[in-house]
Amino acid sequence: MRVLELGNQRALMANSLRMRLRSFASSSASALKWEGGVSLVQGASRGIGLEFVKQLLEKNEKGHVIATCRNPNGATGLLELKNQFSERLNILPLDLTVESTIEESAKSITERYGSLNLLINASGILSIPGVLQPETTLNKVDKSSLMLTYEVNAVGPILVIKHMWPLLKAGGGFGTERDVAVVANLSARVGSIGDNRLGGWHSYRSSKTALNQLTKTISVEFARKKDPIACILLHPGTVDTDLSKPFQRNVPADKLFTKEFSVQKLLNIINNTKLQDNGKFFAWDGQEIPW
């Protein structure tokens, strides 16, 4: 009887070892498959987001990029990049105001890639003709503007992090030159409370302040749980995009940046991010911005 029990134990141990070896081989194959890393750019249909996708693909010959936006079929810039980088670019629908679309994107990424090494939240709104305009006085503040900017600029990016969190933990810095995965939320200097000397722009300014606080809070949790993730905020400067175009009149020429220049600077910060940078707020030139 004891001989039979020993035989069963040995069989179970051998089977367990085989399963562990299979699992190791599978994970190794998966890791090798994504050499160069997997990046997600949320809000990638135009402007800075589209430029991030372009530069990530052009500067990393092995890296894979997932680009999300509300209407992929109408994102002509992304579709052009898809024709050029068909094997390394994946485009998914995602609407920041509909959490189920974020969940679906996370599920698709899990099934196809299994991990993420970089998440860039690039979407944001400042003005919408006939709907939203930056307020110049308290008298022009209304609830709908506050709620809309908060939903898109603060709530949406945080929900994306929530659903991509397991993928970022799985990816860490593997396949990149970093030791950690990076979450980079595009904020703005006007979101800094300490730097607020002009006032105005109540909805946009406060939504970015909320994004900063939420990002900082998430970074504290990542550190406490020892996750291999650094969560940072980035100020791109005033960039020549559709978002800033109505407000460029008083911007000095040397302070109005091209998309190419700003994204190049921001990627340099991202690529050099270390775990000790978790929770920090950087301007495009690498200088820290006060909260």
CATH topology: Rossmann fold
Q: What is the radius of gyration computed over CA atoms, rounded to a whole number of angstroms?
A: 22 Å
| CATH architecture tag | 3-Layer(aba) Sandwich
The strand line-up of the biggest sheet is: 3-2-1-4-5-6-9
Number of separate structural domains = 1
Helix content: 40-55%
Oligomer: single chain
Total strands: 9
CATH superfamily: NAD(P)-binding Rossmann-like Domain
Order of helices and strands: HEHEHEHEHEHEEEHE
Give the overall pLDDT as a whole number. 88
Shape: globular
Secondary-structure-derived class? alpha/beta
List segments where confidence is low: pLDDT < 50 over at least 5 consecutive residues. Answer: 21-32
Largest sheet: 7 strands, parallel
Separate helix tally = 7
How much of the polypeptide forms β-strand, as a percent range? Answer: 5-15%
| CATH top level class name | Alpha Beta
First-residue to last-residue Cα separation: 71 Å
GO molecular function, one term: oxidoreductase activity
Protein name: Short-chain dehydrogenase/reductase SDR
InterPro entries: Fungal_SecMetab_SDRs (IPR051468), NAD(P)-bd_dom_sf (IPR036291), SDR_fam (IPR002347)
Organism: Corchorus olitorius
